[in-house]
Structure formats: C-alpha cells, structure tokens
Amino acid sequence: AVPRVMMTFLESNDFSSKTIIPFCTHGGSGLAGTERELKEACPNSKVLQGLAISGRTAQNDSASVQKDVDAWLKTLGY
Fold this sequence. Notes:
Structural class: alpha/beta
Mean pLDDT: 94
Strand content: 15-25%
Order of helices and strands: HEEHEEHH
Number of strands: 4
Distance between the termini: 25 Å
C-alpha cells in the first residue's frame, strides 16, 4: 500500500496528464496494490507498471538489482 504521507502528497497536487512510475524496495509485500491506489488517487494521470525489489536483494546483490531495473525500464520504453 502507498504510505499515507505519499497519498496526502498525491491528493494535494494536480497530477493530471502526468506519468507516474511507481517503484520501491520492500520486506515482503511487493507493490501490494500500489498501482491501483495511485490510479484511484490520480485518475487523470497515467500510471505505468511498477517495480518492487526485495530490500534484502537491494542490500546484498546490487548487480542483480541493476539488471532488474534496466530490464524494467526497457519494458517501459526508457
């Protein structure tokens, strides 16, 4: 789920016609509905497929994370 402080930020600003690309590290929950919540909070923006990386992987295997991020960005056209 999106942290409340982020939801407050999103709801307090106009993201119409903007592209939102969610990403995070996590301890086991992944994106846990983040994309859906972002679409609900910012209905006039484009929410792309997010990326969630295990915090343990982020701390211990930066080469793997770099590959995952590069591959994810490619699928998004970046």
